[in-house]
């Protein structure tokens, strides 16, 4: 029983991998979808007080003691149908609003490009 | 031709400057008060001396309990003792100040035309020491904070009335320098003092509620629970600069004295209630 479940699992996994590879080939854009570990890393960076510290200002997921300086980060896919716009907001919020208190995370190198990609993936799940 | 062009550009610039008259300190003050009156309609003007507790009834109760057994009491008595102890030359602090230094803290900081400097109470304390052959004290905490606490304590209830003489361009320049420090974005995190203490006052940054700028200086030096001791206003400036990952300026250097000049001017009309206690 156990054995067969495992086999089944492996089979589905490789099927998924195959499908994944196929989709990758046919629709390169799908590569931008976040993988599980990207999202987890993004959550960690976003919540880390000396990195994103987004909770200082935003309600965000299940994060505790959020501030209320910025809008709650909810329904992000609806608000940012274009994921690049979300990334741009996090990279440098002063482009959209020069007076904003939000930190220009990319421009001022508070986060690395990779960390910003991870945060985008996490925030996009909210 | 080229010269003419440059000349006319210069003229244009000058003209522009002349037309867009800078807001006077009086206008800045009126505007900021109106802003806060609108933002916190339930806070009486006099109550701004209580910082964040003037706008947050929830934490106020807890704080009032703390004030019943003030954690700065020992500092006041220690400060009095230091203040009353003569220097090696037989003179004392009382000899350096009007009215023997009692009930005068609300006059600081002021612009001294002779030296062309903003004189803060703490800078005057150390100037007094040096004039009497004593070593200056460290600026941010310890004995200087205690002496300042005692001097503020004797001034409780006195009304702050800082002057920026309009016929003194150097005084105005110091005020403008302080104002600029307050409104300019700074540090890796790119935030101004005003971002937190004007535009987001009353909002929560994580679990902390941001205090309004008006009233910021009235209760210093302050006992902060997170310091576990008394600290001066410039110690707090230092901390708020570091928070946004900006390099802090030296305590009692020209920059923070100018900032204190502007900051205290914005508390004109309020009572001195230092020393105070904060979270």
Structure commentary:
The complex is a heterodimer of chains A (126) and B (279). Chain A has helices at 2-26, 36-47, 76-79, 83-91, 113-123. Chain A is mainly alpha-helical and 126 residues long. The model of chain A is unreliable at 1-31 (pLDDT under 50). Chain B folds into two domains: 14-70 and 165-278, Cytochrome Bc1 Complex, Chain D, domain 2; 73-153, Cytochrome Bc1 Complex, Chain D, domain 2, CATH 1.10.760.10. Chain B has helices at residues 2-19, 25-39, 57-68, 73-84, 121-131, 143-153, 169-183, 193-199, 233-243, 254-265; strands at 110-112, 117-119, 204-205, 208-209, 222-224, 229-231, 276-278. In chain B, α4 (73-84) crosses α6 and α5 crosses α6. Chain B is globular. Mean pLDDT of chain B is 93; it is low at 1-20.
Strand order across the biggest sheet of chain B? 6-5-7
Q: Based on Cα principal axes, name the global outline of chain A.
A: globular
Mean pLDDT of chain A: 82
Residues in helix, % of chain B:
40-55%
Proportion of beta-strand residues of chain A: under 5%
Count the beta strands of chain B.
7
Q: Largest chain-chain contact?
A: A-B, 15 and 14 residues
Task: State the major sheet of chain B.
Answer: 3 strands, mixed
Tally of individual helices of chain A: 5
Number of domains of chain B: 2
Oligomer: heterodimer
The helix-and-strand class of chain A reads mainly alpha
Name its key features:
heterodimer, A: 126 residues, mainly alpha, 0% strand, globular, disordered N terminus, B: 279 residues, Cytochrome Bc1 Complex, Chain D, domain 2, 2 domains, two-stranded antiparallel ribbon, 10 helices, 7 strands, 7% strand
Summarize the structure.
Chain A is an all-alpha fold and 126 residues long. Chain A has helices spanning 2-26, 36-47, 76-79, 83-91, 113-123.
Structural topology:
The complex is a heterodimer of chains A (126) and B (279).
Chain A: H1 2-26, H2 36-47, H3 76-79, H4 83-91, H5 113-123
Chain B: H1 2-19, H2 25-39, H3 57-68, H4 73-84, E1 110-112, E2 117-119, H5 121-131, H6 143-153, H7 169-183, H8 193-199, E3 204-205, E4 208-209, E5 222-224, E6 229-231, H9 233-243, H10 254-265, E7 276-278
Parallel strand pairs in B: 5-7
Antiparallel strand pairs in B: 1-2, 3-4, 5-6
Helix pairs in contact in B: 4-6, 5-6, 7-10
């Amino acid at each position: 029983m156990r054995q067969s479940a495992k086999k089944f699992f492996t089979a589905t996994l490789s099927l998924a991998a195959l499908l994944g590879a196929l989709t990758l080939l046919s629709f390169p854009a799908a590569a931008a979808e976040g993988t599980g570990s990207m999202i987890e890393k993004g959550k960690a960076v976003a919540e880390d007080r000396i990195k994103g510290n987004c909770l200082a200002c935003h309600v965000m997921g299940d994060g505790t003691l959020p501030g209320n300086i910025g809008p709650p980060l909810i329904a992000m896919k609806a608000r940012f149908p274009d994921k690049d716009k979300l990334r741009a907001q996090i990279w440098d919020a002063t482009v959209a609003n020069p007076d904003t208190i939000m930190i220009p995370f990319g421009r001022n190198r508070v986060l690395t490009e990779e960390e910003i990609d991870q945060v985008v993936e996490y925030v996009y799940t909210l | 031709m080229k010269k003419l062009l440059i000349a006319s550009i210069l003229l244009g610039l000058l003209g522009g400057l002349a037309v867009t008259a800078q807001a006077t300190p009086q206008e800045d003050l009126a505007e900021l008060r109106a802003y806060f009156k609108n933002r916190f309609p339930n806070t009486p003007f006099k109550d701004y001396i209580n910082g964040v507790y003037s706008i947050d009834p929830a934490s106020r109760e807890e704080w009032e309990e703390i004030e019943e057994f003030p954690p700065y009491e020992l500092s006041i008595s220690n400060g009095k003792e230091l203040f009353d102890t003569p220097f090696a030359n037989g003179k004392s602090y009382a000899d350096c100040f009007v009215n023997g230094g009692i009930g005068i803290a609300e006059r600081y900081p002021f612009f001294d035309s002779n030296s062309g400097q903003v004189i803060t109470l703490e800078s005057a304390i150390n100037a007094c020491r040096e004039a009497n052959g004593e070593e200056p004290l460290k600026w941010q905490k310890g004995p200087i904070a205690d002496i300042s606490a005692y001097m503020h304590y004797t001034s409780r209830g006195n009304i702050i009335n800082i002057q920026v003489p309009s016929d003194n361009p150097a005084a105005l320049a110091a005020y403008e320098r302080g104002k600029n420090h307050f409104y300019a974005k700074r540090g890796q995190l790119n935030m101004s003092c005003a971002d937190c203490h004007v535009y987001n006052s009353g909002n929560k940054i994580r679990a902390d509620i941001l205090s309004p700028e008006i009233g910021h200086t009235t209760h210093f030096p302050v006992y902060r629970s997170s310091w576990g001791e008394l600290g001066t206003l410039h110690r707090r400036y230092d901390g708020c600069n570091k928070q946004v990952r900006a390099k802090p300026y030296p305590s009692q250097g020209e920059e923070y004295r100018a900032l204190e000049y502007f900051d205290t001017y914005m508390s004109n009309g309020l009572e001195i209630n230092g020393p105070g206690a904060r979270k």
